[in-house]
Amino acid sequence: MSGTWDAATYDRVAAPQARWGQVVVSRLRLVGNERVLDAGCGTGRVTEVLLARMPGIRVVALDTSPDMIEVAKRRLAPWGERVSFVQGDLLVGAPGPVEAVLSTATFHWIHDHDRLFANLAQALVPGGQLVAQCGGVGNLACVQRALVDLGARVDDTYFATPEDTEARLERTGFEDINCWLQPEPTTFGSEEDLETFLGAVVLRHQLAELVPAHRPAFVRRVASRLPGGTIDYVRLNILALRSPHPASRG
Known about the structure:
With 250 residues, this protein is α/β, with parallel strands linked by helices. It has one domain: 3-Layer(aba) Sandwich (Rossmann fold). It is built from 10 helices and 7 strands.
């Protein structure tokens, strides 16, 4: 995950990401003795679901954020030696060999998807699985329009199309590829809940540029521009297998 996070608050409010992550975990086809890379583990909520699924799975939990790693370590302490932690950058490399890569809510923070997927192919054993979900084209469009209206900067994210993603996966060493978009409009129980979520998850970069006294009003102005108080999430789902001969893909 990108940059500095208030990991404790994220862990408390990011129920939508955790819910989607459970579905992504269910797409993994595991025997029960595999080594799995959680590429962007965050606070470990989805990692915990993965560890609970089968008692023999071992997980490498990777994230760029030291704060996320620290919260994940506390959450996952009961799993002992079945989980190890890496603070790292997926554009530099991915720890392997692993039989599967799981990733949720991470890839849209990375612009160079060719390099990302090439590194993941290097980490996977031949035939290994990539099962992932991230923001796809159209994700947070209403939020972005609100930021433009308010003269605030839009996050430097990359929301890819399924077609571009499939092409990149093929040329970086994957086969049996299936990518698709999934709208996930998310409405909260109250204005307070929406504003708390926006501040902790969606608008953290914009708020970092404001003095603390101005932050609540800014969040309210963004929230008021979201139709029905709904955040228009769109998820890009990714399924692929590492080819036995990735070098031949170029």
